[in-house]
Design the sequence.
């Protein structure tokens, strides 16, 4: 009996399609810790196929893989669409075919450009990411602020420290008569367990932020922090600018600017 070896991620109903053709597929379920790398490889595969064919079908395949990535990250597709629409409103799309050739310095330096002069490319990369994070909830900004205030010399923060920061942040708001969150949130309940708090922090903040490749998670001991290579290049001025960016975002989110 002949067989063809594949070893690649396929759509959920492909085994049924193969059986309908009178053949027998040999499959396995990709372990949870391996699914994101497998999806990223699948995305690269579909992009290559689109670049070769330029077909609408390959475009649709790319979109389906992105849906799968969002699902396994615990991110609703509506959230992805919201970020896309926001960036389109602010920066436009790609319909006009504009190619940027150069940017000429007119000799005037803004306060922002003066601050940026002391920042490293790593600083700027993190600041740019933080400034563009989805703000459907406050969780990602609170996690970023927790990390910036609690990171050790290795750029990492313990998960218990993160949970404590979340509790203190939202409790402080409620003590001042302010809503913990603008939407229904477990952190509106001071008695929420550490386990339940961690579930929400992981799903709504840690996993989405890990996808940026700027941060990392360690399971033993449980820690969240900056990617080790990124951390080496982050400056004190950069951390200050990151914290300022996050605080400005939180103030805007809560309508307290």
Sequence:
């Amino acid at each position: 009996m002949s067989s063809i070896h594949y070893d690649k991620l396929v759509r959920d109903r492909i085994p049924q399609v193969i059986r309908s053709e009178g053949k027998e597929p040999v499959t396995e379920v990709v372990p949870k810790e391996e699914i994101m790398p497998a999806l990223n490889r699948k995305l690269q595969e579909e992009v290559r196929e689109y670049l070769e064919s330029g077909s609408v079908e390959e475009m649709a395949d790319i979109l389906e893989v992105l849906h799968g990535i969002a699902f396994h990250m615990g991110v609703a597709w509506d959230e992805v669409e919201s970020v896309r629409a926001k960036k389109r409103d602010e920066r436009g799309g790609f319909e006009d075919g504009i190619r940027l050739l150069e940017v000429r310095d007119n000799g005037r330096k803004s306060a922002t450009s003066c601050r940026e002069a002391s920042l490293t490319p790593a600083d700027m990369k993190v600041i740019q990411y933080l400034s563009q994070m989805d703000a459907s909830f406050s969780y990602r900004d609170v996690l970023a602020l927790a990390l910036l205030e609690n990171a050790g010399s290795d750029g990492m923060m313990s998960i218990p420290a993160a949970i404590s920061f979340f509790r203190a942040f939202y409790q402080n708001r409620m003590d001042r008569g302010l809503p913990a969150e603008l939407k229904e949130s477990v952190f509106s309940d001071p008695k929420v367990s550490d386990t339940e708090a961690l579930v929400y922090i992981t799903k709504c903040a840690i996993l989405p932020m890990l996808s940026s490749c700027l941060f990392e998670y360690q399971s033993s001991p449980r820690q969240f922090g900056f990617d080790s290579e990124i951390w080496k290049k982050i400056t004190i001025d950069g951390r200050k600018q990151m914290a300022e960016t996050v605080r400005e975002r939180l103030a805007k989110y809560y309508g307290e600017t």
